Amino acid sequence: MSSSKETVHESDTHESTDTHESTDGCTDTHEGTDKCTDTPESTDQCTDTQYLSGVSLLLTLSSCIVSLFIVALDQTIVSTILTTVGDEFNSFERVGWLTSGFMLPMACLVASYGKISIAFGRKTTLIGGIIIFEIGSLISALSTSMNMLIGGRVVQGVGGGAVQSMVMVILSESVAISRRSLVFASVAVVWSTSSVLGPIIGGALEKISWRWCFYINLPIGGASLAVLLFGYRPKSNTVNSVKERLQQIDYLGTILVSSGIVMVLLGMTLGGNEYAWDSAAIICLFVIGGVVCILFIVWNFKYSSHPIILGEFVKSVPIMASIISAMFNFGFFISNMTYLAIYFQVVKSASSFQSGIDLLPLVIAVTVSSLCNSIFIDITKNVKLTMIVSGVLSPIGTGLFLLMGKNTSLGVRIGIMVVSGVSIGLQFQSSLLSAQLEVDTPEALIMVTVFMNFMKNLGSTVSVTLAQLIFTQTGISYIKKVVSDDIPAETLISNPRTIHALPLEVQETILDQFVRALKNVFYFGLALGVVCFVASMFTTNKRIPKGEEKRGDDDRGEGEEGEEGEEGEEEEIKDRC
Q1: pLDDT at 151 over 50
Q2: Cα–Cα 20 to 30 A to 84, which of 91, 116, 253, 517?
Q3: N- to C-terminal Cα distance for the chain?
Q4: pLDDT at residue 532 tops 90
């Protein structure tokens, strides 16, 4: 390895001498090596992770951030080409699937990548995810029909889920928890900036060709892949054969959770649009999907020998509180970003490019608050305080969006977005760190990180789907009450740009109803913010260990003991393992 290792804990068993045994199977030596012992019951309890430094850390961080950036960018860049693509393929009624087709596999498959990465390694899983994402991008760019384009987006989503999960796992494993908040802040910056840059870049590329919104992923993803291949070099897992590794994956659980979630989300997406809510198709999707989800829960927690979701997580109030808080916080972040962009484009008549500029106050607030939070955590080691502050600001920030109207001034809009942005920025790293403080083993670190990403993806997908449902159904109802029958309300809601083609007095009437429908979405976001606030109160009270690991294979520092010696030693061992 080109970098110095502060701590080592992977699936390989390392020899050591003069050890002090701990209760979680990890042993610590005076010579600077750690050993994680495997038990007959679980050969994959420990996973191989090195704390990186110097050039190796820089290359690993760069490749991970770039990989995450193109995936995050792809969630919003498509919003600028929906009308163009719908017209080109004469299939405007299906453009919504360009977003749903990407988000569904991300939400469904993320949970399975934890076990896959334990069996085959984080680097291998991330490389596979990048390659799949690149293949999906190429399919989308070369599409000759709407079906082919939607298929390409699905492939992108499969790869994007792996990228998103593995980036967080690799970053968690590469940096000691005492320094992790600074690294996680970069993730917050990526998510927030990509949400704004997506429409801006997409609007610029659309002038050349909408296909360049997908071609752009190829060189960026290729560069990220090259840096990852040569810059990140974890130790290989040589303990288990390929057959043994394959046996560690819960195939039935993966099928059950994926199919169950897909059916429920399809019911939510298609209901009221392509099918009536009381139609046999929608009822079957909800009923069968619900039953399959219940079967997954029973299988995962009672029968599976390699569960996708560890039962200890569900039983832990602090872990579930952190995950629920992050899930709902990220949910209203994505839904609010989506409909704020619509607000600027329709109500304020902004272009896709200009709407991205208008969202900058929110992005800047997320970025600055996340960076300040990382410094605060690094100094105080206190995660609970920022979780509570974020929880308090969540319903306040979202509730302030209800003040947005046709004539809202620039200053008021900026103030509203700043409050919401601070809430989101404080949550990004705090929620994951809060959950990670509650786990003791390397495998649990991987699984809780993946579980957090799974729930955040599920939360964002469900929240956007519900927000779209609320906006569409109420918007159509409001508009039908104020316009004549010869003006199709469904078309005005599905393609709002057509509003500006109507006579001015009709536009004003419709925009009033449009704002009413948008406020219903913000009421929904307010409810999510309240749940986020309540959950934040039950997160862990533990602080990040103060001990700093020294650089070097044989010069690893000891963690500082707390006032109660045994408790301090246990926290130190947990941090190393």
Answers
A1: yes
A2: 517
A3: 20
A4: yes
